[in-house]
Amino acid sequence: MATKVKESAAVATTSSKNGGSLISDDKLKQLYATMLKCRLMEEKALGLKKMARFKGNYYAAVGQEAAVVGAAIDLRPEDAVAPSHRDFITNFVKGVPLDAMFSQLYGRVTSPDKGRCAPAHCGYAPLNIITPSSTIAAQLNIGTGIALANKMLKNDNIVVAFSGDGSTSLGFWHEALNFSAVHDLPIIFVCQNNLWAESVPIRLQTKVEDISLKAQAYGFPGITVDGNDVVAMYRVAHEAIQRARSGGGPTLIEAKTYRWYGHSSIDPAKYRAPEEVEAWKTKDPIAAMERYLTQRNLFTPAWKQQMIESFGKELDEAVDFAEKSPQVEPIECLDHVYSFDIRGRELDRKTRAPKYQK
Questions:
Q1: Fewer Cβ neighbours under 10 Å: the N or C end of the chain?
Q2: Alpha helices in 215-297 (DSSP H)
Q3: Of 59, 49, 12, 48, residue with least CA distance to 237
């Protein structure tokens, strides 16, 4: 059965039956600090892309930080994450070093993928983060396979698989959820419903009001959450993770949120009304959490500024590391090095001109 979680952050921090707080003050501050750092990192990456400091594209999740942070912040190193190409920040939340992340954007040999993948398609094997694919929802089947392996090994490791609202219209999505339900797999599906599948609005994607309703077809719980409320996201994800670890099977969490920018760094997003964007910016998850922490005497502007300055230095050091790292050489094949133009013609390694002109 699908349910909705509409409570404010305050509801999620009320006392539990044993008299203790459901979420500690330290955890609340950690949730906020992690969101803020994710925002700073994304804005840094976007700025570098605009200056053409790295090639390729970038898919920013600015505005969607609460959905990712709330769902992934308490995962163990052994747990797996199946991110989409918009979920670059999941790497940071799970603990991937910034040097490795920015090396991935720059396509350098110090990248976890040795410079072989497009920017933001960042995976990290030591922390069980699957390398994203531009094929929408393809990561869900891989995550489902890992969840099946965990069940066969009889451990309590789980998988959190992220996707967007557009993925719910595809066969990949149906196959992953149906298979996970049939086999009661330890996996949580987090659908970040930002109302737009690239330039296609949600009304042309599905007829249902809440995507979480689709979980009913597979026979496991579906929950709709305010994806801009990090505390609500954390509470729901925590319960779903505990359920999966204990053998209760999968859960679908629909996080209703919004991306501030276009589908990618080259998308001006003119298909959206400016009024719509501005309305959602007033629901900024970071600003909302600042207000809540202030009410609990857990926030000061000085604390925020200190984090901005300190983390800014870490970002600058990571960018410097990436830019000074060696670039990727052409692909080696046996004893010869080949590189090709878009027509498949072999290029001279030094001149980059076709070796054999017709």
A1: C
A2: 230-245, 274-281, 285-295
A3: 12
Give CA separation, 349 vs 116, 329, 333, 357, in Å: 19, 10, 13, 15
Q: Of 135, 133, 132, 120, whose CA–CA distance to 60 is shortest? A: 120
Q: Right CATH number for 2-327 from 3.40.50.970, 3.40.640.10, 2.30.110.10, 3.40.1260.10? A: 3.40.50.970
* CB 304 within 8 Å of CB 293: no
For residue 15, the number of C-alpha atoms closer than 13 Å in the C-beta half-sphere is 4
DSSP 130: P
Distance CA 41, CA 48 (A): 11
Q: How far apart are CA 323 and CA 317, in angstroms?
A: 10
Name the H helices within the chain. Answer: 25-50, 65-72, 89-94, 98-106, 138-153, 171-182, 230-245, 274-281, 285-295, 301-324
- In order, the DSSP letters of 18-81 are TSSBSS-HHHHHHHHHHHHHHHHHHHHHHHHHHTTSS-S-----TT-HHHHHHHHTT--TTSEE
Assign 341 to helix, strand or coil: coil
The CA-atom distances, in angstroms, between 296 and each of 218, 228, 248, 285, 326 are: 41, 19, 35, 17, 48
Tokens of 226: 């305010």
Burial bucket for residue 27 (CB in 10 Å: 0-12, 13-18, 19+): middle
The pLDDT value recorded for residue 340 is 46
Q: Where are the domains of the chain?
A: 2-327, 329-358
Regions of the chain with pLDDT less than 50: 6-20, 332-345, 356-358
Taking the C-alpha atoms of residue 323 and residue 108, their distance in angstroms, rounded to an integer, is 8
